[in-house]
């Protein structure tokens, strides 16, 4: 049972444009959502998070939106840069984020110069 | 560097051998997690510790797997009688339990190859 789903395995975006990565979840107990970026042969790097009491969180070029009624979140990167090329994982946790993370399968983002 | 460290970074072993991995969390972090990632998948939870207490174990963690965090600092993950299906990236993460909404920070991982 895949509780966190990233339905787009890959995404290509022109440099300078907006990248939008999507994530859906099924477990209503999830109340904390995180995005991680992963390069090959490295561990995931924390990017940005959002708790279920908010619907938007911004950090520089990165913005995460949460739609609880649709059980959907998205990560917006603007403007996209070549260094953003990586695999992006959506993750979720319950109990105010104090439990294990459940990850999606990832989206490979390629920024085209 | 004060991030999460893991050792070794790579391990190649023959089927049936035992292997042990080490994780050193960020120094003030009291929670430590182990995850496993296989090709094309996201990391999957294995187990976690609050200080030295092991609070949860996944069904993925068979009897051949054991984890310890003896003094609430570093942790070890041991796999006995390795099988080819154990080949994966083993990731360690740590977090500070500050009440709510605590990000987990990951180490570089240990890549295990079982021949």
Short description:
The complex is a heterodimer of chains A (113) and B (115). With 113 residues, chain A is an all-beta fold.
Topology:
The complex is a heterodimer of chains A (113) and B (115).
Chain A: E1 4-5, E2 10-14, E3 19-25, E4 30-38, E5 45-51, E6 56-59, E7 62-67, E8 72-77, E9 86-94, E10 102-103, E11 107-112
Parallel strand pairs in A: 2-11
Antiparallel strand pairs in A: 1-3, 3-8, 4-5, 4-9, 6-7, 7-8, 9-10, 9-11
Chain B: E1 5-7, E2 10-13, E3 19-24, E4 31-37, E5 44-50, E6 53-57, E7 65-68, E8 75-79, E9 88-95, E10 105-106, E11 110-114
> What pattern of helices and strands is seen along the backbone of chain B?
EEEEEEEEEEE
Question: What ranges of chain B have pLDDT less than 50 throughout 5 or more consecutive residues?
Answer: none
Largest sheet of chain A: 6 strands, mixed
Mean pLDDT of chain A: 95
- Structural class given helices, strands, pairing of chain A? mainly beta
Describe the fold and architecture.
The complex is a heterodimer of chains A (113) and B (115). Chain A has strands at residues 4-5, 10-14, 19-25, 30-38, 45-51, 56-59, 62-67, 72-77, 86-94, 102-103, 107-112. Chain A has 113 residues and is an all-beta fold. In chain A, strands 2, 4, 5, 9, 10 and 11 form a six-stranded mixed β-sheet that branches. Chain B has no helices and eleven strands. The N and C termini of chain B lie far apart (33 Å). In chain B, strands 2, 4, 5, 6, 9, 10 and 11 form a seven-stranded mixed β-sheet that branches. A four-stranded antiparallel β-sheet of chain B has the order 1-3-8-7, with no helix packed on it. Chain B is mostly beta strands. The interface between A and B is medium-sized, with 25 and 28 residues.
